[in-house]
Amino acid sequence: MIKQQEVDSIQPTEKHLLPTNDVIFHCLFGTIGNEEITKEFLEKILNKKIGNIDLDLNLQLIRDHYDDKLGILDLRAKAKDGTNYNIEMQNSSSSTLLERLLSYWARLYSGDLKRGNSYDVLAKTILILIVNDEIKKFNTILDKFHTKWQIREEDYKDIILSDDFEIHIIELPKYIRMRENNEYRNMWFDFIIEPNGKEVLQAMEESRVLAEAKKKWAEITADDIIRDRALRLEMAEYDRNTALKEAREEGLAQGIADGLKQGIEQGIEQGIEQIVLTMSSKNLSPEEISSLTQIDIEKVKSVIAKNSNIK
Fold this sequence. Notes:
With 311 residues, the protein is α/β, with parallel strands linked by helices.
């Protein structure tokens, strides 16, 4: 177990190397040899025993081949009963996030189905998204940070179409609020948010697996190559978010400018028509109106003709 002097000597965590970083998360929970850590993490999320699991991602794969241009890493695990688990760690949500989750689930579910196979090769597939952000579509769900999604009949909501489909979404900002209000606490979520947090270090006194996860995390973050991958991912996410923010701001500014221009032009047009119609009602000819106002004669005639047709 971790000793108190070791707790006291731990320095604050470097922001970029938290387990919420996709690279760090996948090295920790997706590395062959860390099955016990990932198994307990899954059991705490799903609130059930899942038995032993196999992992198909190892540390060397990330050290040698990960490139931030490839996007999100896929953490996959398979239980002895055949159930597929897919865990995604995201630091921000997007407008297409939920559609992408469905795509991931479908791909994993049908992955074992080859030509000539029967459908009994398909196994239950559980996708878990942990997002360090709030999902706009869920902004009315205030009392839950962990939502579970299945396919149910509209009027008979207790009837599930298939047990094979299951998606869990965990919004960490909501968890933090519930934790601060003493509504709920999960040592594993505390760990991925801040491994050196006081509550985590206390929980490690009672949890051998959590203490092992902390040790593995320290080893991973000491690896220069992994650190480089993690920092590059952080920078890539920052660049993407900055580009999106600038695009939104430029779009808004352009929209305001276009709106003002359109409004001014529309106001001028309406003003011209009003002047022409007022002078025309005084029995002034189009030529006289044009001469007095410097409005093009054809424009004057057009305004008078249009309003004559309305009458």
